[in-house]
Amino acid sequence: MLANRADIYNLGDIMSGMEEVFALSYIENSLTSNSVLAPLANRDLSDVHRLIKMAKTDNANLAQAQSSDLTYPYSTSEINEIIAILRHMFRVQAVILDVNQAYIASASQDDKYRVEPIFKLQGSYRNMNKMTEKLSAVMNENELNQLIDDHYLGESQLLTQGAESNLLKLGEMRGTLTEEEKERWAQIKADFLRNKAMGGEDGDTGARIVAQLVDLASGFNAISSQFETYLTKNDPERIARLREAGQQAQLDAQLNAQLEAQKILADSVVNNAKVVSDSIDNGFEKKSESADANIQA
What we know:
Blueprint: H1 19-30, H2 45-56, H3 60-67, H4 76-107, H5 125-132, H6 141-156, H7 163-174, H8 179-197, H9 205-233, H10 236-244, H11 248-296
Helix pairs in contact: 1-5, 2-3, 2-4, 4-5, 7-8, 9-11
């Protein structure tokens, strides 16, 4: 089966309807990478599947009953060690599968529809093998998470660009971002969208000016919409009723919130207008300098 070829990466997009088989292939293909699990590769494959089932159950009695069906005479300590490592492998496998799907989704998306930087970290058999090699039965949860962190930190260093954004995206997927990292990731995505709207670093001056004018128009439309909402929610009759009911504090809070929202939008529009103005000035200056150079020549 294609999913069992260890040299084939990122098969999630061609394994429709075979998700469980594909996920299991990560476990099967990485057995030989771990010194404790390597002997299983040369034994009855049914033993591997039984041990995997035992590792997936939390019922000790059921696991003990299933151990009697093994074809090889494993000792109790051997079974316990194998099961412990397999459970660690399940944790790694879950991360690998998520990374694999994120990589495929990002790679298949057209650049013009991106809302965040491209994700280039991979969830391949190679990644699974490298982490499985370092697993041991005595590892705790923190050590396992650190192993995954360290592995993908090393992988990110191989990227030509975007190492930080890729690691933050991975942290978001795993739910391990700190508050500071969440703020940084949000800032990176906001900067990405702004740069994209301005035509990117390679965009010409004219394209950037047009994009900024579009943003400026959108800002004015947003202010108009907010103002209409403000008038709708705070019409004179409603204000009078609130005052008559003695709800002045509630009224003040609502008015302040609306005014603050208007201020934020207005500041954003002013900033965009300044950027547009600066871009236009720079564009004219460059054209003027070019014209002067041509005249002097």
